[in-house]
Design brief:
The chain is α+β, with helices and mostly antiparallel strands. It is built from 15 helices and 19 strands. Helices cover 33% and strands 28% of the residues.
């Protein structure tokens, strides 16, 4: 590799010595590759379109010569097209430069369109300009590379060499746009809340800490925008949403990245039942728009997104998949150990129930399934069910074993909310880093009165995983966090 890089540096020196600028400022294009291929797809073999002057630019992806002529493929943001350079068309000086070009260089070409004898739409080059000299050779067999760490670390190369990777992120962008379009139609207002917060809240997670010099105080990267969005409900903004970056100081897995994207929305005068309907409509509509069907496949599993989607309470789901009846169990830790779980003795019963669910139920939830009625202790910001104060009006949505959404009817009683946060504060004093902190300003906001309200969070990274059939969250995040790169 070092030898190839050295050769390219030498070429760069020669170019500059010959007064050829290897990194010019701009280049005017008139067509993208996709436009040319679409416009001239009906050309006959060997036919040339007179007057078809085009100007386009891209990276050289292949190059081969035949004496005083040469074929190459260049790739722009819309696709790849063949270009044909001839000595007697561009002249001796330009053809000499063409022969010195390397795969990976950017060029701009001007010329006419024709279709070769092999049926490929091609640009007959009348002039070209070197736009950027590549000093590192592209991988020759990137598809065979098994080290995914290198692909994620050097995403720029991954995007160049693997068209399907680029397609994943184009689809991700479209999904995000469709979410905005859907919510805007329903009169939701997109807003922004602080990423650096004096008190992190809205989720059970360990935050990242930073320090602001001018204010002489520590700040936290947000773990969720929830408490700020609910302040806006108090302020009279009845439907708000944010597509937000969250940061949680937690482990990395195929489904977790310390920095991730969420859709979080709040709707006044609604409860979690209303948001089940909205979630169903949102995801089904986006899947239909993006994939053209509600019958999809994720990691070899066929999934039908046709509505309505099934519902199970948390306890019913555990009973269905483990035969364990939570209500009739006197010692939940003992029963969890019988199932093969390693349970720490200091865990609360509700935490043990959560472990059982994650281990034995989640992996079975292939078809869309709303899991409802979680223990209140697991949902300190949620409103309790009317007929059972020990349960919260909360649901989580699972599709393809992925937890995609979390929602609940929001607790708007400021006195009861203070009691719940005091319980969380006691857990922090006992050593729980991810328990909620006391947020006096949020409580003050609730004391001014917040109407009945429901809140929803959807993991956009995981939704993109589902709709692109990607096995890992790293596949759908352009620059996932990695371990330090080993020095050669």
């Amino acid at each position: 590799m070092e030898e190839f890089i050295k050769v390219r540096h030498e070429k760069l020196k020669r170019l500059r010595k010959e007064k050829i600028e290897p990194y010019p400022h701009r280049y005017k294009i008139t067509y993208k590759t996709r436009e040319i291929l679409g416009k001239y797809k009906k050309l006959k073999i060997g036919e040339e379109v007179r007057g078809s002057q085009v100007s386009l630019a891209g990276r050289i992806m292949s190059k081969r010569g035949h004496g005083k002529s040469g074929f190459a493929h260049i790739m722009d943001g819309s696709g790849k097209i063949q270009v044909y350079t001839k000595f007697d068309v561009v002249g001796e000086k330009k053809y000499g430069l063409y022969k010195k070009l390397d795969i990976g260089d950017f060029i701009g070409v001007e010329g006419r369109i024709f279709k070769t004898k092999t049926g490929e739409i091609t640009v007959l080059v009348e002039d070209f300009t070197l736009l950027a000299k590549s000093l590192r050779p592209l991988p020759e067999k990137w598809h065979g590379l098994k080290d995914v760490e290198i692909r994620f670390r050097q995403r720029y190369i991954d995007l160049i060499m693997n068209p399907e990777v680029k397609e994943t992120f184009l689809r991700r962008s479209r999904i995000t746009s469709l979410i905005r379009k859907f919510l805007d139609k329903k009169d939701f207002l997109e807003i922004e809340t602080p990423m650096m917060q004096p008190i992190p809240g809205g989720a059970a997670a360990t935050p990242f800490v930073t320090h602001h010099k001018a204010l002489h105080r520590d700040l936290y990267l947000r773990i969720a925008p929830e408490l700020y969005l609910k302040r806006l409900i108090v302020g009279g903004m009845e439907r708000v949403y944010e597509i937000n970056r969250n940061f949680r100081n937690e482990g990395i897995s195929t489904r977790h990245n310390p920095e991730f994207t969420m859709l979080e929305l709040y709707q006044a005068y609604a409860d979690y039942e209303d948001l089940m309907e909205l979630t169903t409509e949102l995801i089904a509509e986006i899947a239909k728009e993006v994939l053209g069907t509600l019958k999809i496949e994720y990691q070899g599993k066929k999934i039908d997104l046709k509505t309505p989607w099934k519902r199970l309470t948390l306890k019913s789901a555990i009973k269905k998949y483990t035969k364990l009846d939570i209500d009739k169990t006197k010692n939940i830790k003992k029963e969890a150990k019988k199932l093969g779980l390693k349970i720490e003795e200091d865990l609360a019963d509700t935490q043990v129930i959560d472990h059982i669910f994650k281990e034995f139920v989640e992996p079975r939830l292939i078809q869309p399934m709303f899991i409802t009625d979680y223990p209140r202790e697991l949902s300190p910001l949620a409103k309790a069910k009317k007929n059972n104060p020990n349960l919260a009006e909360r649901f989580e949505l699972f599709i393809g074993t992925l937890e995609l959404a979390n929602a609940y009817s929001e607790l708007n009683d400021p006195i009861l909310q203070r009691e719940r946060l005091k319980e969380q504060l006691a857990l922090r004093w006992a050593g729980s880093e991810d328990a909620h902190m006391m947020d006096e300003d949020f409580l003050r906001a609730l004391e001014y009165g917040m109407p009945p309200c429901a809140g929803l969070g959807i993991g956009i990274d995981r939704l993109v995983m589902l709709l692109t059939d990607s096995p890992s969250i790293r596949d759908v995040i352009l620059f996932p966090h990695m371990k330090p790169e080993k020095q050669q």
